[in-house]
Amino acid sequence: MIITCPACSTRYSMDPTSLGPEGRRVRCAKCKHVWQQTPPDDMPKRVDLAPEPAPSPAPPPAAAPAAMTAASAGPSSGGPSALGGPSEERVAIPPRPRAAAPRQGMSAGIGILILLIVIIGLAAAAGYFFQKQVVASWPDAREIYEALGIAQPVLGKDLEISNITFVNQTIDGQPVLVVHGEIFNKGQATVTMPNLLATLRTEKRQWLFDWIFAIEKTSLAPGETVTFTTTAKNPPKDAKLLEVTFTEKPVGS
């Protein structure tokens, strides 16, 4: 802090802690004037860390002033200009308890468990939403879905396609493939009739051509049989195999 002699206005740099809590008498090194210098209002207090709180009694104020040397005069001296003084007020505080270190092993175990739960959840979701693809590649998987109670309805369940025949004919000067077949309801309930998909393949089961068609009868009662006929103009010459299945797609798609 900077103090000023009231008599000659000489300024000195002084350590505020050397004044003590009650202040002290100082003397000007230039004009020898003596005055009572009080500490600033915001002067910090020194604190000591002690294992147990133990307040110290306040020391008595200084009885005699100390002289200031001429070497400390001026604002640029940078060091204290008063010597001696009472001890600062001390406040003892207990040491801050250490926070418990986290258990690294437990945190890693919880993270692995959460990761496994997420992986299992994603696998279950994929198995549910891609159920048709799973059953198509692994038919026995339907029994697992049914046991879990999440099996999706089977298109054309209890409907059986049989007696499929096809013949090449010429109609109005164009080659036409004529397909005949039957659909039988082997279940115990009336079933809504879905659309049908006819697919032509080579001897090596390579896809050549397909088309979607519907029959006039919209539902089939238990034990009932219905016949169907469908045609395809200009069929591929390499067509050797014919498949007829149910489809969710509309006619013309």
- Mean pLDDT, rounded to whole units? 78
SS element count, helices: 3
Shape: rod-shaped
Helix-residue proportion:
10-25%
End-to-end gap: 92 Å
Structural class: alpha+beta
* Strand element count: 15
The CATH architecture of the domain at 159-247 can be named as Sandwich
Helix-strand string: EEEEEEEHHHEEEEEEEE
The CATH H-level superfamily of the domain at 159-247 is: Immunoglobulins
Arrangement of strands in the largest sheet: 4-3-6
What is the percentage of strand-forming residues? Answer: 25-35%
The name of the CATH topology of the domain at 159-247 is: Immunoglobulin-like
Task: Please mark out the parts with pLDDT under 50 across 5 or more consecutive residues, or reply none.
Answer: 64-87
The CATH class of the domain at 159-247 is Mainly Beta
Largest sheet: 3 strands, mixed
Computed CA radius of gyration, to the nearest angstrom: 51 Å
Region (Disordered): 37-101
Biased composition (Low complexity): 64-86
Keywords: Membrane, Transmembrane, Transmembrane helix
InterPro entries: DUF3426 (IPR021834), Znf/thioredoxin_put (IPR011723)
Would you mind describing this structure in some detail?
- By secondary structure, the protein is of the alpha+beta class.
- Among the domains are: 2-37, no CATH class; 159-247, Sandwich (Immunoglobulin-like), CATH 2.60.40.
- It is built from 3 helices and 15 strands.
- The chain has helices at 104-129, 131-137, 141-148; strands at 2-4, 11-13, 24-27, 34-37, 46-49, 66-67, 90-93, 159-171, 174-185, 191-192, 195-201, 207-213, 219-220, 225-233, 241-247.
- It has a 3-stranded mixed β-sheet, with no helix packed on it.
- Strand 8 (159-171) and strand 9 form a beta hairpin.
- The longest helix has 26 residues, at 104-129.
- The two termini are 92 Å apart.
